Amino acid sequence: MSILQYFEEKQGGTLPKEYREMTTSQMEERIREIKQILGDKLFIPGHHYQKDEVIQFADATGDSLQLAQLCAANEKAEHIVFCGVHFMAETADILTNDEQRVYLPDMRAGCSMADMADIYQTDRAWDALTEMFGETIVPLTYVNSTAAIKAFVGRNGGATVTSSNAHAMVKWAFTQRERILFLPDQHLGRNTAYDIGIPLEQMAVWDPIQDKLEYEGALEDVKVILWKGHCSVHENFTVKNVIDVRNEHPDMRIIVHPECSREVVELSDDNGSTKYIIETIENAAPGSEWAIGTEMNLVNRLIQSHPDKKIISLNPSMCPCLTMNRIDLPHLLWSLECIVDNEYVNQIKVDQQTAEEAISALDRMLARA
Ligand code: 13P
Ligand code: SF4
Q1: Is the CB of 231 under 6 A from ligand 1?
Q2: Whose CA is nearest to atom 7 of ligand 2?
Q3: Whose CA is nearest to atom 3 of ligand 2?
Q4: Quick one: pLDDT at residue 6?
């Protein structure tokens, strides 16, 4: 077996050629037919960062928290075709029952941020940090992380967070212990901790490549340990982008996602989760002007659905999230055809022990969401 064949098999195979040969309207028509045939047995959640060609077929759209809640509440659907990225489909599998199957239409739809923390690095970090700080740390992980990391957090008394409940979860964590370890996005961790009053001088950074804590002061002052990970999409919004918008559009308000760096968030007018950004634009006055710092599929959708407002991307050369974009019409159709044929291609299955430990971390979040 060639290396390519090995990976194709391991990852659930690649799209059969015939789907590339179909026209858009053929694919759309067949997807409509299959949705009709499967009815309530099928549920298609779609993250706001998905392409329009996919979002048009979503039964529900939302941010990662909303989609996790919807999957947890849906007991009817036998098949959940998750239009989002791998960690979201894993979360859906953890939160649904054993009779429900979750699929990711393209197994290459990962998340570069989630890939920045693996369980081996995390175990090493935990050993080193508990040696430095004793039993004073509670771990929090952004849902943008693997099921194994969620399980690690669950078994160590911590919780998951999303961008829409990060403030509440960080406050909760400080009622548990005196320090937090926040994985894997240093920016969401730093922005959230800063908002609730933790000074930047009390935040250290854990470098998982060097296995090293980056901190200048005395260890007893550390309140927050930030994992050195980031979103490769949101890191592309820069201070220069903010300055350019301020110069070129003096009346424009700038709103960004908290996965952007501290400097960018600081210089912007507002920041918040995907849901918060959408609601802010929906509630904004006609004629108002906005520069948005988040994923491009969403920004383009907001531009199209609000012709009464002037909306631009904070970074004019921004691209969509490439892994979110892996899910396209051919892959969605392929997934649905496989279900009709009783073939379980690209099913996402989290093993039972990992799921049980991860669920305690997710439940601690969902109870406070
Ligand atoms: P939310 O859906 O929680 O806003 O997260 C944004 C994101 O980057 C999803 O991958
Ligand atoms: Fe991951 Fe960033 Fe893409 Fe979200 S936008 S899936 S965090 S790489």
Answers
A1: yes
A2: 231
A3: 321
A4: 47
Looking at the domain assignment, is residue 341 inside a domain?
yes
Q: Is 323 within 8 Å of 83 (Cβ atoms)? A: no
Tell whether ligand 1 has an atom less than 6 A from the beta carbon of residue 149.
no
**Distance (Å, whole) CA 79 – CA 103:** 8
Ligand 2 centroid to 323 CA: how many Å?
A: 8
Total number of domains in the chain: 3
Q: Determine whether the shortest distance from the Cβ of 296 to ligand 2 is under 6 A.
A: no
Which tens digits make up the pLDDT trace of 118-163? 999 999 999 999 999 999 999 999 999 999 999 999 999 999 999 9
Looking at 231, 257, 278, the residue that finishes a domain is 231
What residue numbers bound the domain in which 80 lies? 3-109+323-350
254 or 8: whose pLDDT is higher? Answer: 254
Ligand 1 contact, 165 CB (< 6 A): no
Give the domain CATH number at 52: 3.40.50.10800
Specify the pTM: 0.93
Residues found in the chain: 369
- Ligand 2 atom closest to 323 (CA): 3
* pLDDT tens figures, 173-208: 999 999 999 999 999 999 999 999 999 999 999 999
The pLDDT tens digits of the residues spanning 201-235 come to 999 999 999 999 999 999 999 999 999 999 999 99
Q: Is residue 269 part of a domain?
A: yes
Whether 299 is in the pocket of ligand 2, judged by its Cβ within 6 Å, is no
Task: Return the ligand number nearest the Cα of 295.
Answer: 2
Structure tokens at 323: 């892994």
Residue 92 Cα to ligand 2 middle (Å): 17
